[in-house]
Write a structure and sequence with these properties.
221 residues, alpha/beta, Rossmann fold, four-stranded mixed β-sheet, 31% strand, globular, hydrolase, Class_I_gatase-like
Length: 221
């Protein structure tokens, strides 16, 4: 039992500490503001010790897959991300920060190695209109923790030309997969133990994105 404060009230529950990894890519300040809205203490940093010790780690990412992987490798952040996941410590990938969690990504016919924490490859969307840009709905499984409380008609903001599309492989690996459809379905959210990822931008998705971030922060140890 916690000790009462001088005012006679119980001490407040400590705020969750979240690090947004700065490796040279991502909407860092937008992500910082969006996560802070949940009540978490948020730090944007390239300090790997802080990234390893935080209650939650956010891996953002925009642009090319290969460029994001180059930034991760230059910082030597891959082992820290992998060790967190292996230890059951939450990691959230956003947009290309989601994509680099997979085995590989193929852009313009060139395959780049990813972090290998999720099975499969990220490939070009099989759609008439590329990129997939704007607001879209998603279909979440009943066991989704990140989208618990979703009414079903909320829209999230996407901007991408590539995605994880081998949905069966993710499900076979035990992941909970939320899909969106742009001509054909693709993985919009993946939840696999301590590892979570969103192809859309929660920080740009208004209250629907806040719901996801709130649920993620609420689940931090």
């Amino acid at each position: 039992m916690s000790e009462p404060s001088r005012s006679g009230k119980q001490n407040a529950t400590p705020r969750k500490n979240v690090v947004i990894l700065d490796y040279g890519s991502g909407n860092l300040r937008s992500a910082e503001r969006a996560v802070a809205r949940t009540g978490a203490d948020v730090t944007v940093t390239s300090d790997l010790a802080a990234a390893a010790e935080a209650d939650g780690l956010v891996v953002p990412g925009v642009g090319a897959y290969a460029a994001c992987m180059a930034g991760i490798e230059a910082l030597n952040a891959g082992p820290v991300i992998a060790e967190r996941v292996a230890a059951g410590r939450p990691v959230l990938g956003i947009c290309v920060g989601m994509q680099i969690l997979f085995d590989s990504g193929v852009e313009h016919g060139v395959e780049s190695k990813g972090l290998g924490l999720l099975p499969g490859s990220v490939t070009k969307l099989a759609a008439e209109r590329i990129p997939h840009m704007g607001w879209n709905t998603v279909e979440a499984p009943r066991d989704s923790r990140l989208l618990a409380g979703l009414a079903g008609d909320e829209r999230f903001y996407f901007v991408h030309s590539y995605a994880a599309q081998d949905l069966d492989r993710l499900v076979e690996a035990g992941a909970a997969v939320t899909t969106a459809t742009h001509d054909l379905p693709f993985a919009a959210v993946v939840e696999a133990g301590a590892l979570s990822a969103a192809q859309f931008h929660p920080e740009k998705s208004s209250d629907a994105g806040y719901l996801l971030l709130r649920n993620w922060v609420a689940g931090l140890g």
